[in-house]
Model the fold of this input.
Amino acid sequence: MNDIALLFSTFPSRVEAERVAETVLTERLAACVNILAPCHSIYRWQGAIERGDEVPALFKTVPQLAGQLRDRIAALHPYDLPTIEAWPVSAAAAVSDWIAAETG
Done:
């Protein structure tokens, strides 16, 4: 097992998630982006409880690019305060090798 970085963010629409995904893939900051089924989020924002439908996305990259990928997602993201979480995860050697090759 080898380490990869998995970044998670939510978007206001599938179109926005795909726009950001295609940009970071073209720039080779991520090897894969999984755009998930819409979800319903409930959160506190500026003192009030808000609700809204969002589209989650998982970005797969090498650990060395996680910070740069996070910054790029934030720059492209339509939200004033995008939540972008990063986790180190283990993947099979073949998967981590593929991610390294596609982001290299």
The chain has a mean pLDDT of 97. The first strand starts at residue 2 and ends at 11. Strands lie at 2-11, 32-35, 39-45, 48-61, 84-91. The CA atoms of residues 37 and 51 lie 17 Å apart.
